[in-house]
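User: I would dearly like some help making sense of a protein record. This is the protein in question:
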Amino acid sequence: MTDTILVDASAPIRCGWATSDPLYATYHDSEWGHPVHGDDAVFERIALEGFQAGLSWITILRKRERFRQVFAGFSIEAVAAFGDEQVEALLQDAGIIRNRAKIEATIGNARAALEIPEGLSEFVWSFAPAEAQTASHDFRTTSDEAVALSKALKKRGFRFVGPTTMYAAFQAMGLVNDHEPDCFRARG
């Protein structure tokens, strides 16, 4: 069985990964690669990338609204205040990924984020590559900057923030431009 490809002669040319599901296409067109700023917004992207580890991104997209509901809109302060009762409730919620380690890491990461003096957004963006990067069809999964951010976050107590996860966050938050060269969203 092959993947279903969205075919519409009037549709813009997208990155190949964004053509197999309408949800992917919408995410690609309206979010992926757009610069994301603000502590809670950056926290959401890091948390969702952590939940995605080992899973397909489409799984996260399908569950994202429920994640937002049960994680208080990814308010760092609210999530940092979660306790055992919230963890147990989250483990029973079929609308999210029910992985204790990932749930507890998200709460712990919120607590760690509160300790970053300049704020999570400014901290993460300080690791953006100095030069604009563009996709070269080598399908990178990490970079020196993602490795450095991963190490810096782990040093501050974050979990589920490995280099590949941080590179995916870079892509999602617009720190790198990995749109394929012929994609309508690629920028020079």
